[in-house]
Amino acid sequence: MKRKNRLSKAAYVEGILAGDRLVLSRAITLVESTNQADLALADEVLSDVLPHTGKAMRVGITGVPGVGKSTFIEAFGSHLTSNGQQLAVLTIDPSSQKTKGSILGDKTRMEELARDPNAFIRPSASGSTLGGVSNKTREVMLLCEAAGFDVILIETVGVGQSETLVHGMVDFFLLLMLAGAGDELQGIKKGIMEMAHAVVINKADGDNLKPAKRAKVEYQNALHLFPADPSGWVPQVKICSARDKTGIAEVWEMMQKHSEQVTTNGFLQSNRQAQQLSWFKENVQELLGSKFYRSEQVKAELEILTQKVKAGEVPALKAAHQLVDVFFGG
Ligand SMILES: Nc1nc2c(ncn2[C@@H]2O[C@H](COP(=O)(O)OP(=O)(O)O)[C@@H](O)[C@H]2O)c(=O)[nH]1
Ligand SMILES: [Mg+2]
């Protein structure tokens, strides 16, 4: 069945490579589709644009709701685009599945950036792998790179497991924090702190400037306790005010320094290779799982074995072997 919204492969590829935002948007929709024919076409489009990917700086940004991510991205993004950079912002919002509310809220907070011809903002449906719908942010990122964006910013809310996901696809991971609130209060787990290439304390303005400077020292001390990053990069702590647009240029300078360092020492390439490989493995696992559970034979046998295991007639391990053998013809 041909959907009227689907373009030809060549039209997607040419449009993306020409930096056509409209085609890019439609390609993203294709990649995020759950329709098998859409996905098959998306795979081909991705294969064709792959040689044109990899040139962007990939940045992840996280922090609890209210820390100022959207305001920061607006200020940071405008700083970048006014320096001639093309910026794509992808947001992974766990709440977006249920309600569009938070995305709408973000759009109003990123008004300037939304109108900026050098910026592209795209909220990404946060399908969870656990729920069976895989997250396509990586693929979307590649499409944006092929479309010529210099910096890809991936925003996620710092409360769940999406941070690990995002950390696994970016070169630089930035954690936004606030002064004056304990780590527990901010809902930030130690593991997330450990992944960060930089902690940026936002809202360092007005009465909050002094506490922010104090917090900077505290975080610097805390970060020193973590094991050294394999890239040789020492995590930095900065303060900024996204509202007043202070400290924003310093954050960008820091990212450029990091980029220079990891490009020179080869870590950027080896890190991306490692990310690519774990992405491959994850996909194999997920594909196996979904094919397995879609099989009619598996479904039938699963029902029978479930009853037998429940009744204590077959040991769980043996039942698992039997079920897997049904699929692989063991
Ligand atoms: N004083 C001050 N307020 C800020 C700053 N950045 C954001 N805010 C405010 O904090 C609130 C949450 O900001 P928002 O960007 O929506 O946070 P998000 O939930 O992390 O995206 C809003 O009311 C912002 O106006 C800042 O640098 N200084
Ligand atoms: Mg926000």
What does this structure look like?
The protein is 52% helix and 13% strand. The chain has 330 residues and is of the alpha/beta class. It has three domains: 1-52, Single alpha-helices involved in coiled-coils or other helix-helix interfaces, CATH 1.20.5; 53-265, 3-Layer(aba) Sandwich (Rossmann fold); 278-328, no CATH class. Helix 1 crosses helix 3 (36-49), helix 2 runs antiparallel to helix 7 (137-146) and helix 13 (296-310) packs antiparallel against helix 14 (316-328). The protein binds guanosine-5'-diphosphate and magnesium ion. Magnesium ion (MG) binds next to helix 4. Guanosine-5'-diphosphate (GDP) is lined by residues 63, 65-71, 109, 202-203, 205, 241-243.
CATH architecture of the largest domain: 3-Layer(aba) Sandwich
Bound molecules: guanosine-5'-diphosphate, magnesium ion
* Helix percent band: 40-55%
How large is the count of helical segments?
Answer: 14
Mean pLDDT: 88
Determine Rg (CA atoms, Å). Answer: 22 Å
Main beta sheet, described? 7 strands, parallel
Total individual domains = 3
State the secondary-structure class: alpha/beta
What proportion strand?
Answer: 5-15%
CATH topology of the largest domain: Rossmann fold
| CATH homologous superfamily designation of the largest domain | P-loop containing nucleotide triphosphate hydrolases
Order of helices and strands: HHHEHEHHEHEHEHEHEHHHH
Outline the low-pLDDT stretches. Answer: 96-102, 128-133
Overall 3D shape:
globular
Cα end-to-end separation:
36 Å
Number of strands: 7
Largest sheet, order of strands side by side? 3-2-4-1-5-6-7
Family: Belongs to the SIMIBI class G3E GTPase family. ArgK/MeaB subfamily.
InterPro entries: GTPase_ArgK, P-loop_NTPase
Pfam family, one: MeaB
GO molecular function: GTP binding; GTPase activity
